[in-house]
Amino acid sequence: MAVQVLTVLAYKAGEPVTSTLLAASVNTNPVVIRRLLLVLQTAGFVETRKGASVGSRLCQPPQRIDLAQIYRAVETAEPFKLPQRSMDHPCAVGHCIQAALIQVFAATETALERELAKTNLAHILALVEKSCGQSRQRPH
Taking phi first (over 0 means left), then psi (-120 to 50 degrees means alpha), and beta for anything else, what does residue 83 get? Predict the structure, then answer.
């Protein structure tokens, strides 16, 4: 959802965009979007104004925002979480599996962030515009 919201803001190229329009794009409630915009504002991606020029806009070029930065800003839960269970049973696998999986999960998350960092918001916008051109539909 965050990538889509930021892509709409990039598409609008500095024009203020309301949470209502963003919510329509994502197919959710404007309140959900306003909460997300607060997170994105804290991360330094957007600025939101109230009053005459109401709406949100990107506060840095889309080329400078990569998907890993967005991921880190919005994902608060661990993507690969081990269950919190007591390991007081005699099974060797059950007793040691968490230690083994911690290493795998850490490497997986590092690889995920590395791959996300290779793509910036400008690239996503270009793909969206190309796709919309092929389907003859324009994004908001």
Answer: beta
Write out pLDDT tens, residues 95-107.
778 888 888 988 9
Residues 6 or more apart whose Cβ sits within 8 Å of residue 55: 15, 16, 17, 18, 19, 48, 49
Distance CA 86, CA 80 (A): 18
pLDDT of residue 136: 46
* Residues facing 47 on adjacent strands: 57
Q: Measuring CA to CA, which residue among 24, 8, 25 is closest to residue 16?
A: 8
CATH number, domain containing residue 44? 1.10.10.10
- The total domain count for the chain is 2
pLDDT one-digit tens code per residue, 47-78: 998 876 789 999 999 999 999 999 999 988 77
Question: Do 128 and 114 have their domain in common?
Answer: no
The conformational region for residue 27 under phi > 0 = left, psi -120 to 50 = alpha, else beta, is: left
54 belongs to a structural domain: yes
